[in-house]
Hints:
The structure is a single chain. This protein has 9 helices and no strands. The two termini are 27 Å apart. Helix 1 packs antiparallel against helix 2 (23-48), helix 3 packs antiparallel against helix 8 and helix 8 (143-166) packs antiparallel against helix 9. It is 78% helix and 0% strand. The chain has a single domain, classed as Farnesyl Diphosphate Synthase (Orthogonal Bundle).
Amino acid sequence: MATEVCKGQQADMDFEQAKDVTETEYVEMIRRKTAVLLATALKFGARLGGAPAEEQDILYKYAIEVGIGFQMMDDYLDTYGDESFGKRIGGDILEDKKTWLYIKAFELASPGEKAVMRNWHGHTDSETKKIDAIRSVYTHLGVDKLILEEIEHRFNSADQYIDQLASSNADFIALKGYVGALSRRNT
Length: 187
């Protein structure tokens, strides 16, 4: 787990300098950086609790999907969230992070929109203008809606795993409810 998390963090840092990052590479990075930690914790807890190996594996897969969905929601909220929860909006844009939003926008962008995105890369002045310009491209291309669909897909995939266990145990039903609330968070 520690090796996976470190590899994920290194990939995240490498992406800042990379010219192109694919959606597949991004999802693998967040799987390693975020989801593996959650998945290992759930699997380890299940093992300590005496759960059968099959349940441990299902919980691991469940947590991978939850972790990916959670990280994607964090990326979405970084760009479209509300500052009232204490996090500065647009930090990923200012740091030129290759988030799912950025990658998908660049994939769908016209040459002119790609030029806008490239022109703002590396700018450290006019922070508000940079955030507004990049967010405007995202919104125009609809990637704000696409990421919400992808997040919903991830949490629905997670539900398919936990549903294999939920009918047999009230704790799994409670876990599903808790994660469901996380998936609808706006902060």
